[in-house]
């Protein structure tokens, strides 16, 4: 006889924290992405690691991570890491100090994100600031090299206003500081916890979670109760929909369909127990 297993609860629901109705398992695809984002962060800020140094030299060729084109013959892992760049961009910002590390076009050092994103690839030519420039290179005689005030391009007007309201970088302010995390929760170091929380699937907290996973719960009972709350108990009416050749009627009263609500709430036989 062919043995067929059906999942009671979808994997993505199981991977939610217990407080959000899951079993608290980690979804490894998401976890792997969070780990790969750490490598992107290290490529951005630099580290003593041989792997980072080799890739910075040979793959990035000292260009900005965001600007690097991924070659079709690049390794699978490199393509996967580079595919996470849009996510990394949302999680990275640079606190501008001396302007010697932040890329003028590619890093998020203003509140509007990387200038290349809103000015466009014509930006470097229009503004006369090379695509490879660091922010300090946008300073001429102690002032921002601004787009012309009469410019009709809305993006350049926007950049002009942004630069006017931004302090110019100064060596006395120390080194530019890259930060990681969602806006309002950024820290100068990579945090696996913050990254995982940002990446993982979330759900609203069900009212029953605390009743199921209370301190001192019996695992077997808690699991059954958890399954019941999700309405995924293998009651007969459900087993029949899975293709099992059995009666869908209640095993206690044998009169109505055996569903969770019937067993726990409406069955006359179980009411008497
Ligand atoms: Zn019944």
UniProtKB/TrEMBL annotation:
Source organism, top-level taxon: Eukaryota
Alphabetically ordered keywords of this record: Membrane, Transmembrane, Transmembrane helix
Cross-referenced InterPro entries: RVT-Znf
Keyword Transmembrane helix: yes
Transmembrane segments: 35-54
Pfam families, per database record: zf-RVT (PF13966)
Reverse transcriptase zinc-binding domain location: 190-272
Designated name of the protein: Ribonuclease H protein
Origin species: Cardamine amara subsp. amara
């Amino acid at each position: 006889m062919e043995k067929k297993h059906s999942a009671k609860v979808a994997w993505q629901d199981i991977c939610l924290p217990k407080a959000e109705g899951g079993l608290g398992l980690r979804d490894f695809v998401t976890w792997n992405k969070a780990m790969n984002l750490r490598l992107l962060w290290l490529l951005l800020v630099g580290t003593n690691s041989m792997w980072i140094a080799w890739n910075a030299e040979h793959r990035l060729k000292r260009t900005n991570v965001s600007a690097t084109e991924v070659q079709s013959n690049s390794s699978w892992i490199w393509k996967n890491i580079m595919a996470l760049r849009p996510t990394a961009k949302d999680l990275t910002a640079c606190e501008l100090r001396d302007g010697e590390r932040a890329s003028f076009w590619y890093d998020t050092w203003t509140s509007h994100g990387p200038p290349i994103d809103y000015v466009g690839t014509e930006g470097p030519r229009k503004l006369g600031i090379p695509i490879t420039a660091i922010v300090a290179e946008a300073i001429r005689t102690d002032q921002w090299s601004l787009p012309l005030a009469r410019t009709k391009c809305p993006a350049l007007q926007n950049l002009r206003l942004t630069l006017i309201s931004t302090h110019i970088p100064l060596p006395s302010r120390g080194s530019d500081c890259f930060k990681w995390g969602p806006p309002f929760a950024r820290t100068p170091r990579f945090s696996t916890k913050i990254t995982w929380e940002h990446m993982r699937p979330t759900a609203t907290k069900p009212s029953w979670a605390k009743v199921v996973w209370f301190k001192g719960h019996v695992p077997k009972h808690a699991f059954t109760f958890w399954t019941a709350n999700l309405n995924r108990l293998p009651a007969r009416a459900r087993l029949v929909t899975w293709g099992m050749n059995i009666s869908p009627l209640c095993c206690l009263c044998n009169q109505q369909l055996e569903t969770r609500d019937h067993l726990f709430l409406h069955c006359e036989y179980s009411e008497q127990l």
